[in-house]
Structures are given as C-alpha cells and as structure tokens.
Amino acid sequence: MAVGGRLGGISGVRAAVQEEAARRGGAGRWARLKAYFRDSWLELQKVIWPTQEAVVKMTGLVLAVVLVVSMFIFTWDRILWTITQPLFHVK
Fold first, then answer.
1. Which of the 8 DSSP states describes residue 50?
2. Domain edges within the chain
3. How many other β-carbons are positioned within 10 Å of the β-carbon of residue 28?
4. DSSP string, the chain
C-alpha cells in the first residue's frame, strides 16, 4: 500500500505539472520562442552597421597590426634562440 500511495504522489505531481502546462496553453514554449526571434530581429534592425569602406579600413588595420606583432615575436625568438643556442649545443 505504501508503494501505491507513493506512486500516486508522484503521479499527482506529474498531473499537476501537466495541468499547469495545459492551463498556460500548449503553445507557451513556442510563443516564447517566436517572441525571442521577433525581439532579436527588432534589435538587429536597430544596429548601425558599418559601411563597406569602414570594414575594409578596419580589416587592413587588423592585418597590419598582426603583421607587426608577428614580426616582433619572430625577431625576439631569433635573438633569444641565438643567445641560448650555445647553452644547448652538445658536441
């Protein structure tokens, strides 16, 4: 009897959850999802997108900075390699 009462309690909770979902409407989850995408689209329309000219300028700037930093790292790597080479050279 205790087992049946316990299962009845779980079934009661499950029934209450299902009843709550039915009361909200089965489309509650879909309505929230639809609202999310609608709101996202409205926010995207508010964005001030850069012009093609600005994108090209910023891309060139990023590439130039990457080139300069990579050359800096390469130079220091070579300098440190040259300095430490005699320490690790085994004859």
1. P
2. 1-47, 51-91
3. 13
4. -HHHHHHHHHHHHHHHHHHHHHHH-TTHHHHHHHHHHHHHHHHHHH--PPPHHHHHHHHHHHHHHHHHHHHHHHHHHHHHHHHHHHHH---
Q: What is the pLDDT of residue 1?
A: 45
pLDDT in tens, the chain (91 residues): 445 444 455 666 666 766 766 666 556 888 889 999 999 999 999 999 999 999 999 999 999 999 999 999 999 999 999 999 988 876 6
Residue 74, classed as helix, strand or coil, is helix
What's the CA gap between 87 and 89, in Å, rounded? 6
Place of tokens 């508010």: 46
58 contacts 50 by C-beta, under 8 angstroms: yes
* pLDDT at res. 31: 87
